[in-house]
């Protein structure tokens, strides 16, 4: 004996909720693909040596009066965390940016300049193809969810579409 069928209004509500979540994940993935804010934070980097008239806490000063002479022995009195500074950054697939400590603003580098010259083409295309495949699978899942939402046939057909949409969406993840 077959179970009692679910009313069409309940099916549409469930399909509508699934479509909304699928569409939201699609919007987030497209935004992430076009943004340079995939990850952001601070990273600890070594302070540069002070040059010329630079003052402040963002560089390491020498105790030598002849600081520009590379042959002079230069002692650094700072130890531990005093040799490091926290630099803010954000990165995405296209650009990686970090703040400039001594000035306002940030310095950005393209994704291509960060990879070794021998692997530039492969790494770039692998990353782009993987992201586009992810977006295409999410788009396919959202389209299938919208078909299920508007499709007024039997319950079994709706469940088949729902199952196929779920498989495609899981493959995207």
Tell me the span between the first and last alpha carbons: 37 Å
**What profile does the largest beta sheet have?**
4 strands, antiparallel
Cross-sheet strand order for the largest sheet:
1-2-3-4
Which CATH architecture is right? Up-down Bundle
Order of helical and strand elements: HEEEEHHH
**CATH fold name, please?**
Butyryl-CoA Dehydrogenase, subunit A, domain 3
Estimate what percentage of residues fall within beta strands.
15-25%
List unreliable stretches of 5+ residues: none
What secondary-structure arrangement, pairings included, does this model have?
Layout: H1 8-34, E1 39-46, E2 84-91, E3 95-99, E4 106-110, H2 111-114, H3 120-150, H4 155-172
Helix pairs in contact: 1-3, 3-4
Subcellular location: Membrane
Main location: membrane
Keywords: Membrane, Transmembrane, Transmembrane helix
Overview of the structural elements:
Belongs to the GSG1 family. One of its GO terms (cellular component) is plasma membrane. This protein is of the alpha+beta class and 173 residues long. It has one domain: Butyryl-CoA Dehydrogenase, subunit A, domain 3. Helix content is 46%, strand content 15%. The protein has four helices and four strands. The chain has a four-stranded antiparallel sheet with strand order 1-2-3-4. A hairpin with a 3-residue loop joins strand 2 and strand 3. The longest helix has 31 residues. It is elongated and about 80 Å long.
């Amino acid at each position: 004996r077959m179970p009692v069928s679910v009313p069409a209004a309940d099916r549409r509500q469930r399909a509508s909720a699934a479509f909304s979540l699928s569409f939201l994940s699609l919007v987030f993935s497209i935004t992430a693909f076009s943004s340079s804010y995939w990850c952001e934070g601070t990273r600890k980097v070594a302070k540069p040596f002070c040059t010329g008239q630079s003052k402040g806490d963002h560089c390491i000063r020498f105790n030598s009066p002849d600081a520009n002479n590379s042959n002079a022995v230069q002692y650094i009195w700072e130890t531990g965390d005093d040799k490091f500074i926290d630099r803010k950054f954000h990165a995405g697939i296209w650009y990686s940016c970090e703040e400039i400590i001594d000035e306002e603003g940030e310095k950005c580098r393209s994704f291509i300049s960060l990879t070794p010259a021998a692997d530039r083409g492969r790494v770039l295309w692998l990353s782009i193809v993987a992201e586009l495949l992810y977006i295409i699978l999410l788009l396919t899942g959202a389209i299938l969810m919208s078909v299920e939402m508007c499709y007024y046939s039997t319950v079994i057909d709706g469940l088949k579409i729902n199952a196929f949409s779920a498989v495609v969406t899981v493959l995207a993840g």
